[in-house]
Amino acid sequence: xxxxxxxxxxxxxxxxxxxxxxxxxxxxxxxxxxxxxxxxxxxxxxxxxxxxxxxxxxxxxxxxxxxxxxxxxxxxxxxxxxxxxxxxxxxxxxxxxxxxxxxxxxxxxxxxxxxxxxxxxxxxxxxxxxxxxxxxxxxxxxxxxxxxxxxxxxxxxxxxxxxxxxxxxxxxxxxxxxxxxxxxxxxxxxxxxxxxxxxxxxxxxxxxxxxxxxxxxxxxxxxxxxxxxxxxxxxxxxxxxxxxxxxxxxxxxxxxxxxxxxxxxxxxxxxxxxxxxxxxxxxxxxxxxxxxxxxxxxxxxxxxxxxxxxxxxxxxxxxxxxxxxxxxxxxxxxxxxxxxxxxxxxxxxxxxxxxxxxxxxxxxxxxxxxxxxxxxxxxxxxxxxxxxxxxxxxxxxxxxxxxxxxxxxxxxxxxxxxxxxxxxxxxxxxxxxxxxxxxxxxxxxxxxxxxxxxxxxxx
Length: 459
What we know:
Blueprint: H1 11-28, H2 45-48, E1 61-66, H3 70-87, E2 90-95, H4 100-109, E3 116-119, H5 122-130, H6 139-148, H7 151-155, E4 158-159, E5 162-163, E6 165-172, E7 175-179, H8 180-186, H9 194-206, E8 212-213, H10 219-234, H11 236-243, H12 252-265, H13 274-279, H14 283-288, E9 301-303, H15 308-312, E10 323-327, E11 338-346, H16 351-360, H17 363-372, H18 390-401, E12 407-408, H19 410-413, H20 416-419, H21 425-435, H22 440-457
Parallel strand pairs: 1-2, 1-3, 8-9, 11-12
Antiparallel strand pairs: 3-11, 4-5, 6-11, 7-9, 7-10
C-alpha cells in the first residue's frame, strides 16, 4: 500500500480548497504586487519564528543534494548560509540529476553519499528506506514537524509509520499563468471551465498569438497536465485508485482524460513550436517564452505550479500585472487541486544532519526562501507576509487553509521507474502522446504495461 493511502480525502474538501483558491486569485491576480502588505493575522508565525534551537557545530561539514537549478538553487543556498551562520557548520550544495534515486545510488556505491538529499517524490522516499539509505528523523526534527505541519504533510514523509522526510517545499500544481497583454489584445477572459479555456485559446489564436507553451522536454510537466484533467474529470476516488494502481491505465476514465488533453495537444497550431518544438522545450524556457516579446510572445499561456514565478522573474514581466494567473479550470464538476513537494531526507545520520533537518522543518528556514519568491512552504507557521507579492500570498494562504485536504502529485506517488524517470515510463509515454494525440488506446496500453511492471517490482 502506497504512502498516500494513509491520507484519503473527501470530494468536499478538495472542492472547498478549489473554491477558496479560485476566489482569492480572482481578487488578487489583477491587483499587482503589494510587497509592503503586513500579515493579516491568518498565520501564527509571529509566535514561533526564530525560536528553533540549533546546536553549535563548529568544524562539522555537510553535503546537501537536490535537483534544483537556477534561481531555485541560488535561493536555497541562502537558507543554507543562514544555517552555517547559526551553527558554524560548513554546508556544500551538491547538484543532482533526475532521477535523483539513481544519482544517489551512484554516490552511495562510490562511498560518497551526501548527508541530506531533497527528494521530490514520496515514492523516492520509500525506495530510499527500502534500500537502507534513509535514516529516521530524530526527536528534535520530529518535534519541529509536529509544531509546524499539518498531519497530512507529516504523513507523506513517513514510511511504515516512521518519519523520514521533512517536506521543506510544496507546490500548487493547479495554475495556468498568462500574458496579460496577449489576453487583453485578444479580448480573452480568465476561464473557469475547460470549455471556457478552449474558447479563450481560440480567441488568442485568432489574435495571432499561439495559445499554449508546453515544456514537453521535461516529461513531468506532461504528467501534471494529465493529473489535473484526470482529478477534475474522474474525481478524487478514482485518482487515488489510479495513483495506487488499483485500477488499470486501460480504464475508460484514463481514455476520457487523454481524449480531453488531445483537445489542446492535438489542436493544430495551439502549442508553440508544435509537438516537435514543445518536445525540445524545457520547462524554464516554456515559461520565459510566454513573458518575453511584449504583446507578441511565443505563447499566451503556460501551465505549471506557483514555482513558475522563479522563471517569470528572469524576464521583465511583473507578477500580478504583466504575468497573471488563474486556477486550472474545472473539467468535471469541480476544479482540481494537485500539490507536490520536496522532502529533506537524512542519508548519513549525524548531529549536524539532524540539526539541518530540524532547521528545515522550522519557520525560520522557510521564511528566508519565501521572501525570495518562487517558493511555497507547507509550514503553517511561516508568516503570510513573508511572500513577496499578493498572488503568492494568496496561493500560500490557500495551501495552509487546506490543512490535510489536498491530492498529492500522482506520478510522484508512483515507483520511480514509472513516475519519475526521464525517457521512461509515464514521462516518455506522455511525450509520445504529445507527438501523436490520436493514439489514445496505444498510449493507455503502454502506460499499463509499464505501470504493472514498476508497481509489481516496487522500483
